[in-house]
């Protein structure tokens, strides 16, 4: 279904911040006797479709797990292919993101990627920095434990320098030291392809998020699947530890 036809969920509350672990590209390709890169290519098409659908639905922030800090363990040519797709995505999508007022943000240790890609990311973030939003967040070379460790180091060095009191290191202070500090709280975390793990993604931020595991392989995910997920979110009762 075309992204601009994605129906609004009838009965529910709209999540402000949705994150997706995009899983199943390899299996999508395998089922078709295609190389894994074909699955990743279709995965990029799904990224385009779903980010448009998210904007249509009025979701403020969509965060996508594109490359984890553990993905370096994949064969070298697959890593190279993924980086190539990312370059292509940034080059081909930037104008649309700008014209639609989307802000692009990259989280993770992306500065360790190749210098040309870092340059493209910096340019894309700079060119969309003043956009009113919605925000598309891409997690690249991201690992939640490393993010939390970096926040801890930062707060410890602030305390050691006497700029903050040790007692001031509370949940709020950690929130504010994470890369997501300027984003609304995570409401809904979706993982595709039937796997039920968080794989080191947004571990702190997911504390009160609704988790949704869907069987759809990422390359088959579209505006309808997203609207269905949002509908399910709207039917859940969030209690945040209360009754
Ligand atoms: C998981 O599928 C997917 C990834 C590790 C990469 C996700 C990347 C993309 C969708 C493309 C690049 C993204 C952007 C934003 C341009 P898998 O390979 O682990 O699938 P499998 O578990 O079936 O093997």
Short description:
The protein has 243 residues and is an alpha/beta fold. The chain has seven helices and six strands, in the order βααβαβαβααββα.
E-strand count: 6
Q: Helix fraction?
A: 40-55%
Task: Label the overall shape.
Answer: globular
CATH class: Alpha Beta
**SSE ordering:** EHHEHEHEHHEEH
Assigned CATH superfamily:
Decaprenyl diphosphate synthase-like
CATH fold node name: Undecaprenyl pyrophosphate synthetase
Strand order of the largest sheet: 3-4-2-1-5-6
Query: What is the radius of gyration?
Result: 18 Å
CATH architecture: 3-Layer(aba) Sandwich
Terminal residue distance: 39 Å
Number of domains: 1
* Cofactors, ions and other ligands in the entry: farnesyl diphosphate
Mean residue pLDDT: 94
Uncertain runs: 1-10
Number of helices: 7
Main sheet properties: 6 strands, parallel
Structural class: alpha/beta
Q: Kindly estimate the percentage of residues that lie in beta strands according to DSSP.
A: 5-15%
Please, could you describe this protein's structure?
Helix content is 43%, strand content 14%. The protein is an alpha/beta fold. The protein has one domain (17-233): Decaprenyl diphosphate synthase-like (Undecaprenyl pyrophosphate synthetase, 3-Layer(aba) Sandwich). A 6-stranded parallel beta sheet has the order 3-4-2-1-5-6, with helices on both faces. The protein is globular and about 60 Å long. Mean pLDDT is 94; it is low at 1-10. The structure holds farnesyl diphosphate (FPP). Farnesyl diphosphate (FPP) binds at residues 22-27, 40, 43-44, 47, 64, 66, 71, 82, 85-86, 89, 138, 193, 218.
């Amino acid at each position: 279904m075309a992204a601009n036809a994605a129906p609004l969920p009838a009965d529910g509350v709209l999540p402000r911040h949705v994150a997706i672990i995009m899983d199943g590209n390899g299996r999508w390709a395998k089922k078709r006797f295609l190389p894994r890169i074909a699955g990743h290519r279709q995965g990029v098409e799904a990224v385009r479709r779903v980010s448009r659908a998210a904007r249509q639905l009025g979701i403020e922030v969509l965060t996508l797990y594109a490359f984890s800090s553990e993905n370096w363990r994949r064969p070298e040519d697959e890593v190279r292919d993924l980086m190539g797709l990312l370059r292509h995505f940034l080059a081909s999508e930037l104008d649309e993101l700008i014209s639609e007022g989307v802000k692009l943000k990259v989280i993770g240790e992306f500065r360790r990627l190749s210098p040309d890609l870092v340059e493209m990311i910096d340019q894309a973030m700079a060119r969309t920095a003043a956009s009113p939003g919605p925000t598309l967040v891409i997690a690249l070379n991201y690992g939640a434990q490393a993010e939390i460790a970096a926040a801890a180091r930062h707060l410890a060095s602030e305390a050691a320098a006497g700029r903050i009191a040790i007692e001031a290191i509370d949940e709020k202070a950690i929130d504010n030291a994470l890369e997501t500090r300027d984003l609304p709280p995570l409401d809904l975390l979706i993982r595709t392809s039937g796997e039920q793990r968080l794989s080191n993604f947004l571990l702190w931020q997911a504390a009160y998020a609704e988790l949704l595991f869907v069987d759809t392989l990422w390359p088959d995910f579209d505006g309808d699947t997203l609207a269905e997920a949002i509908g399910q979110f709207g039917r859940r009762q969030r209690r945040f530890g209360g009754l």
